[in-house]
Design a protein that fits this description.
DUF2842 domain-containing protein; elongated; membrane; transmembrane
């Protein structure tokens, strides 16, 4: 059983594009700035910081991106 999102499929597609085209570049700037704070530290610590920051950005948007690459479930079937 899949959990139904509050947004329609088309709305989720539009919002996912906004997140990817606007939000992700902004997050990259923030993540790079935060990673720069660890510039004098060991390479292993920097790697851990970047891996964590690379995973953390998607967690709030997990339900938004789920099923976006599939066909529209609300579309009428093609004959």
């Amino acid at each position: 059983m899949t959990k139904k999102s509050g947004l329609s499929y088309k709305a989720r597609r539009r919002w996912s594009m906004v997140v990817l085209l606007v939000g992700l570049p902004l997050y990259i700037i923030v993540a790079t700035t935060l990673g720069g704070l660890f510039a004098g530290q060991s390479v292993l610590l920097q790697l851990v910081v970047y891996v964590v920051l690379g995973i953390v950005w998607i967690l709030p948007f997990k339900s938004l991106f789920r099923g976006i690459g599939q066909a529209d479930p609300d579309a009428p079937p093609e004959d």
